[in-house]
Amino acid sequence: MSTLLAYSAYLPKHRLRLSEKDNRVAASFDEDSTTMAVEAASALLRDHDAAPEVLYFATTSPAYFDKTNASAIHAALGLPQAVFAADLAGSARSGFAAWRAARAAGGLAVVADVRTGRPGSGDERGGGDGAVAFLFGDEPEGIAEVLAEHSLSAELLDRWRQPGDAAGGQWEERFGLETYLPLLRQTAVEALKLAGLGEADHVVVVSPNSGVRKQAARVFPGATSSPIGHSGAADFALGLADVLDRAGVGETVLILSAADGCDAIVLRTTERLPAARQARSVAGQLADGVEVPYLTYLNWRGWLEREPPRRPEPDLPAAPPSSRTAAWKFSFTGSACGSCGFVHLPPQRGCKKCGSVDEMEPRRLASAQGTVATYTVDRLAFSPSPPLIEAVVDFDGGGRYTLEVADALPEELAVGTRVGLSFRRLFTAGGVHNYFWKARL
């Protein structure tokens, strides 16, 4: 079996306050499963030069049906065309399918979800949005060895959602609980037996069924779950990422997911883990949030219709120009003059500095940092999260461009502020999403 080489989790910045103690992790209006997947995967690949052989993307909230969402992730990551990219969508179990497929091929598995529940529902209270990326390979320097995988399938009408529905339905939790608990016990025993273990140092139990999550610690003492609540296809992955953030060398981890059956993974960490943990832990990201008003959140999710702007609708993003400028639009690739080194954003044929023509080399700046040269706060332009902030950014190593600033308050910005980039959805028109990059503090 391939080893786990690296992992990276992404949690959106916004928090919906549900009580004095509980805050829900909420994706912003310009985030979806595709953009969050790019955030997680790009953070992981920054430290890995070699492109993965394959990319599998799993979600229960795809931005598109009848179109491969993984292809947009592939483009945003700037991967070679030869890298196979495909979706695995529809249920929480698809996250395990992406893990297994990528592990078998020594590739990249990315799982992401935006969990939407009716206002006041258990899904709204107990859900969370996030993404995780896992990279597999045969290299000896992996951070964790996969000791065993085991699964049991079961047809169970525990929860469901018809295509086109904004939120799903679920049966009374006790019905699913009575079916899932025996499956969890059986799967755990078999997985540990395959791994040659009697027990594991860390146990993670996740499930769309809230009763399973409540009973997990009783059935498996010391077990944890996803740190943000049920997160769809990303559920088990966020639980695993949280454990990898704090597990010691040589410790074993048992992951159990009860969703339309039961899936288990058993891993053992290696001596490389402490030096190769993700830069920002799940707990650290969870603690770093900005509160979003409930009415604003409802508007983002489409449960509340606000007054539309008295302006023309944005134009439908057209396929031909998007295709011609795919490297710029998706992977923020500009051009650097081969004669003088001047960096152009967007890419140009002729150099603005020395005048040379057709001597450009592509320069991808998606992972670059920059400095705010100037900015403006527009309180009149329509935005689902006003005001709209735009900044002129001077990038390290060359290049200047004007970008919208994501997840920022006006008082947080100043001339000289350091920013990075974040892949976001600018708007949707005619059912077509217009993806591009925004600046982010």
UniProtKB/TrEMBL annotation:
InterPro entries: ChsH2_C (IPR002878), ChsH2_Znr (IPR022002), NA-bd_OB-fold (IPR012340), Thioester_dehydratase-like (IPR052513), Thiolase-like (IPR016039). It comes from Amycolatopsis acidicola. This is Hydroxymethylglutaryl-CoA synthase family protein. Residues 366-424 form the ChsH2 C-terminal OB-fold domain. PANTHER family: BLR3430 PROTEIN. It comes from the Bacteria. Residues 332-356 form the ChsH2 rubredoxin-like zinc ribbon domain. GO terms for molecular function: acyltransferase activity.
